[in-house]
Each structure stands twice: as structure tokens, then as C-alpha cells.
């Protein structure tokens, strides 16, 4: 069997995917990070500070909840990893806090970030408020219109939100603008990327910071059941909650890893974000991965009802897990996700984020036996999606 990597080699490659494809102007920033990130992340003092913040500020460990109604419905033992109970409402705070601490260790005083729906922007602005860092968030002008409550949160937290007017005025344009900012201020600024994407070492940094999710799952499942789970399921936008939920199981071949992408209005509809189904190898935002692109390498606009999954690529580790078949990639439509969100709400009393609802809906496509323990990563809560849920509900009734 082909070798499977959970960490990249020194050039940032997981098999054939990864690397650092950046303009020469970014070399100093990237090289500084490449040279220093592992010794900082593994440093005892850093780990102690990070773990204390995760415990007392974020509220970790997050519970592993046995969902009895879902279990009865699907004929297996369904457990939910409750990342929705984290401070700020999703897994993103794990990465934002870890990278803000990393930035301080690098002597940086200013943080920049990009955000689509505003979730990563809010998590970053939160970490910066806590740690006394100056914060600037780039956000597409279209997204600013769509996500006013999160814009207000970031501003109240003290962040400067800059509207990006280029391109389609959405996430990928915000990433480009953030990279431009970083080039112009290499010495005092750290760029906190929001998912397991970007040039090496970002995918590895974000994966390691999010790997607390699978570290906890493993311990919690073993405590509750005495065995490893049959499967771990997580949704994939860029892939950070899935990378975190998979990491400590990658070398346990008996654990099925299932990644769920957004099929939007259907994989073949032209309005989809199912990257592995539609994409081909290519370079996006500084690394080689699988990308939704046309024959000329132009990125195809993705679509998903959930802003967090509306991304035309996946991180390089996911491209590797896909290519080696270590993880299985499936897709769920907008409608299937919304229906799964209503089922969870009405049967378990938990309103999930639309992104997480994709992971739940995957259960409809999978077959398990009654003894199988299946862990679904509930990446975030649904407060931010109430408008979408209510309009769906009102149209149906
Ligand atoms: C941002 C977000 C995602 C998608 O990002 P990943 O990096 O793929 O995890 C998923 N769920 C929630 C709740 C989010 O906020």
C-alpha cells in the first residue's frame, strides 16, 4: 500500500500535494515561519499556555455526546463531538488562539486574517482582543453585506474590517488581499490563515492546532466503549475541522475516515463545491492540491448554502488522503444538509451550523452495523444560520 502521511516532509509535501508556491516577496515571511514553527509548537511553555487557554477560556474538552435518537434512526451508535460548545461557537477558535500565541512568540504585534462568513474573523478578533494584538480582517464586500452580525462582532472586539472590492468580492479575493498586506509588512505582521490551506507550513500548523479534536475523541471513545470508533465523519470546506478530527486516527486503518463536501444544488448542477468530485490537481493559494478549475486553470466559482464550505479547493493533506483512498470523500446537497439540521434540532435539541449539518446528512448515505461506533464532528452551532433555516422552514409550511 502507498505510504500515508499525516505530517508533511520538510518541503511541505504530503506525497505529491502541498509545497509553498508564493511570490518571491513572501519568501522571508514564509521562511521565518518554516524555520521556527515546529520548535515553538512543541515547546513546553507554549503547550502549557495553549492548553490552559483551551481549557479555561475555550471550554475544552468538548463533550463526546451519545445521540440516542440519531443512533436509533441509523441503527448504529452515533456520538457527536461537540465543537459547537466552544467559545465563539465553532472549532475555529482552536486555530486562532494557537496562531495568535505563535505570533507573539515570533515577536509580531499585528495580525491579519481573511474571512468568508466571518467565523474565522470573529475567532481571530477574539484571540487578538484577549492577547493584546492589533487585528485587521479582510472580507469581500459581498460577504460584508451578507454577514452583518459577524462584522459587528469583529468591530466590537476591536478589529478593523477591510472591505475587498476586487474579483467576485468574496473569500478567495479576501485571501489575495491579505497576502498582499503581508508582503507589504513582513516584519511586524503574522497572517492567521483560517483553514488547512495555503503555503507550507500553514496546513501543518493548522492541522496540529486542530488535532486536539481527535486527541480528545480517541480518549473519550476509548473511555466510553473500550475500543476505537468504526468511523469518524467531518465536513470539509478547506478541511480544518476534518483534519483535526482525523489526525490521531490516520494511522489506525480500522477507523474509517469520511470527509463530506458540499454538493450545493447537485454535483453536476454547476452550483457545487464538491472539490474532489469536480476538481483536478492544481495550485491554489500557495499549495498544490485538488482545485475546481477550468481547462485554462481558471478557478471555478463554488457554491454552497453554507459559507464555510463555499471554497473551490481543499487542503493538501486532504488531497493526499483522497488520492491514497485513506479517507472517503462524499458530497451532500444544500437541501440534504438543511433537512439533517432540522432532524438534529427536533430529535436531539441541538441546532447545528449548516456546515456541520453536511456531516450529519452523510449518515443517510452510509451503512453501519448496530455495534459500530460512529463519531460525527459537530464543527459549530447554528446561530449564524438562523435566517437560512427560517426561510427554508417558512417556504415549506
Ligand atoms: C469555517 C467552518 C467550517 C469549514 O472549515 P473547515 O476548515 O473545513 O473546517 C466548518 N464548520 C464550521 C462551523 C465553520 O465555521
List the helices and strands and how they pair.
Blueprint: E1 13-14, E2 17-18, H1 27-41, H2 44-58, E3 64-66, H3 68-74, E4 77-82, H4 92-105, E5 110-115, H5 119-131, E6 134-140, H6 141-146, H7 148-156, E7 160-164, H8 171-184, E8 189-191, H9 202-210, H10 212-225, E9 231-235, H11 240-246, E10 256-264, H12 275-278, E11 280-284, E12 287-291, H13 316-323, E13 327-333, H14 334-348, H15 354-361, E14 373-378, H16 386-396
Parallel strand pairs: 4-14, 5-6, 5-8, 6-7, 9-10, 9-14, 10-13
Antiparallel strand pairs: 1-2, 3-4, 11-12
Pyridoxal-5'-phosphate binds at residues 90, 92, 119, 195, 235-241, 308-309, 353, 355-356, 379-380.
Provide a compact summary of the structure.
Belongs to the TrpB family. The chain is α/β, with parallel strands linked by helices. It has helices at 27-41, 44-58, 68-74, 92-105, 119-131, 141-146, 148-156, 171-184, 202-210, 212-225, 240-246, 275-278, 316-323, 334-348, 354-361, 386-396, and strands at 13-14, 17-18, 64-66, 77-82, 110-115, 134-140, 160-164, 189-191, 231-235, 256-264, 280-284, 287-291, 327-333, 373-378.
